[in-house]
Amino acid sequence: VQLVESGGGLVQPGGSLRLSCAASGFTFGSYVMSWYRQAPGKERELVATIGSFGINTNYAASVKGRFTISRDNAKNTVYLQMNSLNPEDTAVYYCNAKRTREYWGQGTQVTVSS
Questions:
Q1: C-alpha 30 chain-centroid distance
Q2: Cα(7)–Cα(96) distance, rounded to whole angstroms?
Q3: Quick one: DSSP state of residue 2?
Q4: How far from 89 is each of 3, 7, 67, 77, CA to CA, in Å?
Q5: How far apart are CA 13 and CA 78, in angstroms?
Q6: Count of H-run helices and E-run strands, the chain
Q7: Model confidence pLDDT, tens digit, residues 42-101
């Protein structure tokens, strides 16, 4: 099983990034996919979740209206489009897959700074 995140980096406040998470080794289309993040000195928090069919989504209040989660089951990939980024969004972002089992990616660093 692998979840490989990509797309992180350094961006200025107000900018955008698109994270990707490529999955392999399990039945991707059957799993609920989520993005979590962990900032230095803070606990890991749920950012966004998308159902297996890509219809139902949920967001943390802090990112609602700015972030969009989506998935392409044909490509076994989940995305997180992040707009209007601010320094409080700086964190390591993790991809998560959950159904009967739970899997995590290794994380990708997002830094928002001028």
A1: 18
A2: 16
A3: E
A4: 22, 15, 11, 22
A5: 24
A6: 0, 11
A7: 999 999 999 999 999 999 999 999 999 999 999 999 999 999 999 999 999 999 999 999
Nearest to 55 by CA among 76, 37, 73, 35: 73
Q: Report DSSP letters for 6-60, one per residue.
A: E--EEE-TT--EEEEEEEESS-GGGSEEEEEEE-TTS--EEEEEE-TTS--EEE-
Instruction: Say which amino acid occupies 94.
Output: Y
Do 38 and 30 touch, CB atoms closer than 8 A?
A: no
- The type of residue at 80 is L
Q: Closest Cα partner for 33 from 18, 19, 21? A: 21
Residues 33 and 46: beta-carbon distance below 8 Å: no
